[in-house]
Amino acid sequence: MGELHKSKYSIPYLEPAMPPQNAMPHGKDLRKGRVSLPRQVYHITTVTFDRQPVFSDLRPARVLINALREAQARGDATTLAFVIMPDHMHWLLQLEGATALSNVVGAVKAVTAHGLGGRIWQSGFHDHALRQEEDLAKLARYIVANPLRAGLVQRIGDDPHWDAVWL
Fold first, then answer.
1. How far apart are alpha carbons 68 and 44 in whole angstroms?
2. Helices then strands, each counted (H, E), the chain
3. Which tens digit of pLDDT belongs to each residue from 141-162?
4. pTM score
């Protein structure tokens, strides 16, 4: 009577393994499965080194915006929408020509770092290749509303560091 009944199907409870507090994806992990396809639309997110609020000031933000414009002028990408946040950027682009996505983003980051005279960016970036059924205009609205959701502005129009081809 004093023995516990044990089912042959009992599975011992194990505490789930938790990743270390400082576990962050490495740049090489962000590249796994990345494919660069001409005319494909991508949503890019990239952050500043140590999440420093580099783009809180007007001049650095304008340097980055000009780098995005240069990428378009070179024929590397067509910018559909972007927003510059204090410590990161969202960029909705259509890849053009034969230049690889990593090279396009790398060039924008390099031009920005050169224009600001130092290390600006954390290595790597996150990309999402949009599927045909995804609504581009809806995603663009979501991207440009980031400063509003972050509480940086009261209205989207109050933020000077965004653009979208639909608006």
1. 12
2. 5, 5
3. 999 999 999 999 999 999 999 9
4. 0.79
